[in-house]
Amino acid sequence: MKNKPISLIIVLCIYIIAFGAGAFVLTAVLPLIESKQSMQSIHPLVALFIANVTATIVVFIFNLVFKNASVYDPYWSVQPIFIIGAMYLHYGLSFQLAQLYILVPLALWSFRLTINWAAGFDNITWEDWRYRDIKTNYPKLAQLIVFTGIMLMPTCLVFLGTVPYWYLLQVELLHAEQLNSILLIIGGIIILTGTVFEHLADTSMRRYKKSSNRSAYIDEGLWRYSRHPNYLGEILIWVGIFIAGLVNLHYFSLAGVILIIILFTCISIPMMERHMLKKNAEYSVYQKTVWPLIFGPRKSE
After folding, report:
1. Is the separation of the CB atoms in 72 and 149 below 8 Å?
2. How wide is the angle at C-alpha 271 spanned by C-alphas 133 and 137, nearest 5°?
């Protein structure tokens, strides 16, 4: 099925079913288990995590149906909205106006990233090169790798990255403490900055790909000063949430931002670099000239 509008509708239905299943587990299955087993209430973060994994399993099943792991790609940007929405709706945590300093930038990031994915999504048969490589190189273990490495690991990391918001919600009268408001404002600014970086990087990349006379690699806009400005922007999103979460710091809040930084610096960037070198050896010149992640002056011209 190569019709893009229909393919997008299919993906939308997949996510409605997936998050519907997660919501059902959170609101019906887990409370029933608690009552049947006469056990103590499951910690909200544990319950949210179980619901999140349930949604991931549903997406994985649809990956098997359509033989396409890229159905998971939008999950990264919509998952935090599902988690935070459940914090408010299911657990009845109070809303405070100061929380908008984080909620608005986070919603803008989620919307922009999802729209950017949709713009680059051709149809339900299109699959990211990384997933195709896994299936080619590890045919017998492909689906296990797809589930654990491509889907479950990012699900866990994004969940952990969202955890600081849970502890932020435990603070009453955020506006009463000037320091709290300042931390939320700083966090929101960092999230907005990351969103702008991603937008500028993606816009330049689309323009580069459409050019009929393009060079071997992109070297314009933010890409002239960072080889991966889109990844830098993404890291800033989670740094912003963490900074906002300092209003009620919990050691568990550290895990998400640290692991996400490790993911991009130790896995995503090296994988992309190897892919680019395989496509064109000239990329090595770019590597020697431009910083890998943070912005910096070009090393040579």
Report:
1. no
2. 25
Q: What is the pTM of this model?
A: 0.92
The pLDDT tens digits of the residues spanning 170-221 come to 887 665 567 788 999 999 999 999 999 999 999 999 998 888 787 888 888 9
